Amino acid sequence: MRVTGKLNLMQLKAAIRKMNGANGPIDCIVIPIEANHLFRGEQGVYLDLIAFESKTKNEKIKDTHLVKQSLPKEVLEAMSDEEKKSQPIIGNLRVWGEYQESAPQSDMTVGDEKDDLPF
Questions:
Q1: What average pLDDT does the chain have?
Q2: Is 26 left (phi over 0), alpha (psi -120 to 50) or beta?
Q3: 109 DSSP assignment
């Protein structure tokens, strides 16, 4: 099974700025950590996400899931129901193919001890 997706980072509190790089000006996206409830861990800065199965039955739209930001519990508890409902969709996912359980690698049948092993 393969999953692909896209996130619209401009759905976060963000700004596009032209900044000076080593080889001249470059376009950058500036995303404030605290204002976006990002998590700073030992290995990086993380955006927690949650995906909901899409109820859209439009044949032209192949996306299977909508993606929203998963906010910390204390932030959600401070929000009204209307604020929670108005949280933007920041992306989508598409599941390609169906999950199929692979065949077992081990043979669990009991056989004569004189038989050779199947692997």
A1: 82
A2: beta
A3: -
